[in-house]
Design brief:
Blueprint: E1 6-10, E2 38-42, H1 58-85, H2 91-120, H3 126-136, H4 144-167, H5 177-192, H6 196-204, H7 210-242, H8 247-259, H9 264-273
Antiparallel strand pairs: 1-2
Helix pairs in contact: 1-2, 1-3, 1-4, 1-7, 2-5, 2-6, 3-7, 4-5, 4-6, 4-7, 4-9, 7-8
GO molecular function, one term: hydrolase activity
InterPro entries: UCP07580
Biased composition (Basic and acidic residues): 8-20
């Protein structure tokens, strides 16, 4: 890790979930011994991140910048959504929701700072934030369960990207160290808390039929994934155009990056499709081993009590 990176930890004993199971009548495959922790990372604001911080490659940089620019407003939406449900869930889920919210607040803070660096390099990323706002306005006038289903879909996408970033170091190979540390830290917590929104969903929809729960979750996953992924491509192309690429060349280069080499989208398509299947739960893929993979002094910290 970069020696200039500041690390602030909040510690406590891990939560004993077996003592306070959710009374949903629906089984959850979140591991009982799994604990969430808060890693209050503050990255070096004085670090001179290069314009093309990912391997000197404008294409890779544009893709990750597009994703980063979408995160602050998206994560604020996740936080607001979880707060809608926190007064009507079992105590163990409520405690995990509080940790989830704290993690997302920290992610938002650091990506706001990262996005400011992107803007300082002359990129206009305001339209990306506006596009996320327009997408999330689809929830206006809808039941709060609709917001939760959107959160599940986007958290599923985030968990998949995070899995690949931590499982295969080639995805961040050659990236500026400080920037790569931001992504690895964020990926760690995305994997760690990937099940909580779905556990809230199971509780919130416990009186729904299985068919209704499956239909709503699946239709929203299809709609939101298409919009979000499509917008990330559109915005990454726009960033490449700001680098002087023609639209045609930018599109070709970006598609080659996403689907051919290194081809993250191609490699995770099957994983994404699992959200469409009956019996889906984020922890059907138990990748907790990746949480401690980054070389960091906080790897074995425990979850705060509240």
């Amino acid at each position: 890790m970069n020696k200039q990176t500041s690390i602030d930890l909040e510690r406590s004993e891990p939560l004993d979930k077996s003592a306070d199971k959710p009374a949903t009548g629906i089984s959850s495959s979140t591991p009982e011994e799994h604990a969430l922790i808060v890693r209050n990372r503050r990255f070096d604001r004085e670090h001179k991140t290069p314009r093309h911080w990912h391997s000197g490659d404008p294409v890779a940089t544009a893709w990750y910048n597009s994703v980063s620019a979408s995160l602050p407003r998206g994560e604020a939406f996740f936080i607001d959504t979880m707060r809608m449900f926190r007064d009507d869930v079992p105590d163990d889920i409520a405690r995990e929701m509080k940790v989830f919210i704290t993690q997302e607040i920290n992610h938002t803070r650091e990506h706001v700072a990262f996005n400011r660096l992107v803007s300082d390099h002359g990129y206009n990323v305001e339209s990306i934030d506006q596009g996320i706002q327009a997408m999330l306005e689809l929830t206006e006038g809808r039941p709060k369960e609709f917001n939760l289903a959107i959160t599940i879909a986007l958290e599923h996408f985030a968990a998949m990207i995070s899995h690949h970033l931590l499982a295969d170091p080639r995805y961040l190979e050659g990236a500026d160290q400080e920037a790569a540390d931001i992504w690895r830290w964020h990926a760690t917590e995305e994997i760690e808390h990937k099940g909580i929104t779905y556990d809230v969903w199971l509780h919130a929809t416990k009186d729904w039929s299985r068919w209704k729960r499956y239909r709503v979750k699946t239709l929203i996953a299809l709609l939101i994934t298409k919009k979000y992924f499509g917008n990330r491509i559109r915005d990454a192309i726009g960033l490449l155009e700001q680098d002087g690429f023609s639209r045609r060349k930018a599109k070709w280069k970006l598609y080659a990056f996403l689907w051919w080499k290194p081809g993250m989208m191609r490699r995770m398509f099957w994983e994404w499709s699992k959200i469409l299947m009956p019996g889906y739960h984020p922890w059907n893929l138990d990748d907790r081993a990746l949480i401690n993979k980054p070389d960091s002094p906080y790897a074995d910290a425990a979850m705060p009590a509240e």
